[in-house]
Specification:
Low-confidence stretches: 1-9, 11-15
Number of strands: 8
Structural class: alpha+beta
Number of domains: 2
Largest sheet: 4 strands, antiparallel
Mean pLDDT: 79
Order of helices and strands: EEEEHHHEEEE
Oligomer: single chain
Helix content: 10-25%
Distance between the termini: 47 Å
Shape: extended
Length: 185
């Protein structure tokens, strides 16, 4: 955990698995303005609260990174038209555990939106989340993907559900709407 000095946030929540813990009493903290009219640095004081960032015991960040980081396309993967970059995280070459990072969802972002695209999206998500089962972080992973009617067109949605231990309900169950529309070419 590390401390962070900031103005009081409008909400007490931060994205992903981070939360702001109760602030310490407000203190005057200095900051320097090096662009003053005289050219000389001027020190100002502003009343700031010091918050601590804590991690919540959830899987949100791990799931978001697993699904929405681009996994390197293999030699057999068909790249979208006009794309030659196989993407992927450059750090994989240094990790050395043989486990690729991210998902192949990016391969579905272009091209024909056929009836089999939800099945491909489901497979890409299951493949990206497999590490959770392999390492025991999750006891069960279920992914649903389907076309859902939208304002102008049907959109591809994915819904990963993650269980831990013998829990009756999933500890993670979020419906993600994508920008992939049915019928675009």
């Amino acid at each position: 955990m590390f401390d962070l000095a900031t103005r009081t946030p409008k909400t007490g929540s931060l994205p992903f698995d981070l939360q702001l813990l109760q602030p310490l009493p407000a203190v005057d903290l200095p900051w320097h303005d090096f662009a003053s009219a005289t050219g000389q640095p001027v020190t100002y004081f502003e009343r700031l609260h010091t918050y601590a960032l804590g991690l919540e015991p959830t899987l949100q960040t791990a799931i978001v990174l697993s699904l929405f980081t681009d996994r390197r396309a293999g030699p057999d993967d068909v790249l979208p038209r006009g794309v030659s970059d196989r993407r992927g995280w450059v750090g994989e070459a240094f990790v050395g555990d043989g486990q690729p990072w991210g998902s192949h969802l990016w391969l579905l972002s272009r091209g024909k939106s056929t009836d089999d695209k939800p099945a491909k999206a489901r497979f890409a998500c299951e493949e990206a989340l497999q590490w959770m089962l392999d390492t025991g972080v999750a006891s069960r992973v279920v992914v649903e993907a389907e076309w859902v009617p939208g304002t102008n067109a049907e959109r591809l949605t994915i819904r990963p559900q993650i269980w831990q231990g013998q829990d009756a309900a999933p500890v993670y169950d979020v419906l993600w709407g994508t920008s992939v529309q049915r019928g675009n070419g």
